[in-house]
Design brief:
By secondary structure, the protein is an alpha+beta fold. The chain has two domains: about 110 residues, Gcn5-related N-acetyltransferase (GNAT) (Aminopeptidase); about 190 residues, Gcn5-related N-acetyltransferase (GNAT) (Aminopeptidase, 3-Layer(aba) Sandwich), CATH 3.40.630. Strands 1, 2, 3, 4, 5, 6, 7, 8, 9, 10, 11, 12, 13 and 14 form a 14-stranded mixed sheet that branches. The chain is globular. The two termini are about 35 Å apart.
Length: about 350
């Protein structure tokens, strides 16, 4: 059967929404596949390079899709950013088993380095065969911000209530430490050149993905709920870090997600102070719990000092056949990658 692979068009959005929810076995109104969210992810703002490819069969039906998230890596010893991408909403129909691999090969043409973060068991199996190598995992950490509300919302069943009580007991047994570094959290309407300075400084300590003002501002335009932008400032007023925070409904509670947090150094105590400020701001925004990602050792230690507990790992895989990235430096990834920001 003939399949044509081409860039996504605006008229494809309703059909793509139905294809994704059916293929991933999610409710028809799942937010990740809503038409307005797909438009935000793949078509706005318009760019010369496609950010989504669809596979169309001979009768015009969508039988495969891959979303392309272009970025670039900066890190110790790199003289210039290394173009990279990761794939999201990657799916082929069961009737066209080779479509998923064909879409992956087309995606790989867009950048010399590719990476994967999390994903389904089937997807991870395919990318392993496609030359992706396992890397140290990214870990997801959580902290309860409103203990009594969390306990009350633990659920009607004894099992749910017991789980909520255990989480609360762990939180009370390991409270956050007070900060020893002074920082200020400065709300901003949008990002400016300070973001580039923070990324340049951070890339001396870890391999990080590009954070241009344009990319960060696009996250603030998520159509379903607003995210908030911030700069961290040292006592002398210098911008030393950036953050994006969002609150997400989770049944009877609200999750506060550290969508992005990046500082210009690798000092665990400075990161600890920043995470305390971010947690307090999320609580002010109405969050009952907070979630953040970690990978370099100073981020993991900072989260521990700030009262977070590790919940689970996310597999991180890298395809770098030309060995363009340094392997002796940790990689720092946050929810801005792999569609984790608002899901």
């Amino acid at each position: 059967m003939t399949v044509d692979i081409r860039p996504l068009a605006v008229d494809d959005l309703p059909a793509l929404s139905r294809f994704l929810t059916a293929g991933f076995h999610t409710p028809d109104d799942a937010e990740f596949a809503a038409v307005d969210v797909l438009r935000w992810k793949y078509l706005e703002p318009a760019r010369p390079e496609p950010r989504s490819l669809v596979a169309i069969d001979e009768v015009g039906a969508i039988v495969g899709h891959v979303g392309l998230v272009p970025t670039a890596f900066a890190g110790p010893g790199l003289s210039a950013p290394v173009p990279a991408l990761h794939m999201i909403d990657w799916l082929g129909s069961r009737e066209h088993r080779s479509v998923g691999a064909s879409l992956m090969r087309r995606a790989h043409e867009a950048a010399p380095v590719q990476f994967g973060l999390g994903g389904s068991d089937a997807g991870r199996s395919v990318i392993r065969r496609g030359g992706y190598e396992p890397m140290p995992p990214v870990t997801v950490h959580g902290r309860i911000l409103s203990p009594l509300r969390w306990l009350r919302a633990g659920g009607a069943s004894p099992r749910q209530a017991a789980r909520a009580a255990r989480d609360l007991a762990r939180r009370l047994a390991r409270p956050p430490r007070p900060a020893t570094v002074r920082l200020e959290l400065d709300p901003i309407p949008s990002f400016g050149p300070e973001a580039l300075d923070v990324v340049a400084a951070a890339s001396r300590h870890a391999v990080v993905t590009a954070r241009t003002p344009e990319r960060l501002d696009a996250l603030l335009r998520y159509p379903r709920r607003p995210a908030s932008a911030y700069l961290f400032r040292s006592p002398d007023g210098r911008a030393c870090g950036l953050a994006i925070l969002a609150t997400l409904p989770r049944g009877r509670t609200t999750l506060g997600r550290v969508v992005d947090l990046l500082l210009d150094d690798a000092d665990a105590e400075t990161w600890h102070a920043a995470l305390l400020l971010a947690s307090a701001e999320l609580k002010r925004l109405g969050a009952d719990s907070a979630q953040a990602f970690a990978s370099p050792p100073w981020t993991t230690e900072a989260l521990r000092r700030a009262g977070f507990q590790m919940r689970h790992p996310l597999d991180f895989s890298l395809r770098d056949r030309r060995a363009l990235l340094p392997r002796d430096a940790p990689t720092y990834l946050t929810p801005i990658e792999a569609d984790y920001a608002f899901g």
